[in-house]
Amino acid sequence: MTKCVNQPGYYKCELDKAKLSGLVIGSTTGMLFVIASIWKSYKLFKKKKNKELRKKFFKRNGGLLLQQQLHSSDGSIQKTKVFSSKELEKATDRFNEDRILGQGGQ
């Protein structure tokens, strides 16, 4: 990285700018790759964790029974409307406590 030349009475040292810039670019690229890899691993871990939580909540909240009823060809079971979380959030004014049935509201 440095080149030193022995002059009469002193040393003259100069940086090799090409090697230094290559080192800086290589180090920066390597660090960016490591950071991107860590970020991607974190996102994949979080996605997997959320998928497991959704399955857990689906089972806990009677999701299997609901799914069977929805796909049943039995005529005695009424068609059930399943609302998305966005529809519920909109209908309840972001799950406002004043919108709970039987507890006031409009």
Automatic annotation (TrEMBL):
Source organism, top-level taxon: Eukaryota
Gene Ontology terms: biological process: cell surface receptor signaling pathway
UniProt cross-references to InterPro entries, sorted A to Z: WAK-like
Keywords on record: ATP-binding, Membrane, Nucleotide-binding, Transmembrane, Transmembrane helix
GO MF entries: ATP binding; protein serine/threonine kinase activity
Residues spanning the membrane: 20-39
A single cellular component GO annotation: plasma membrane
Protein name, entry field: Uncharacterized protein
Organism: Turnera subulata
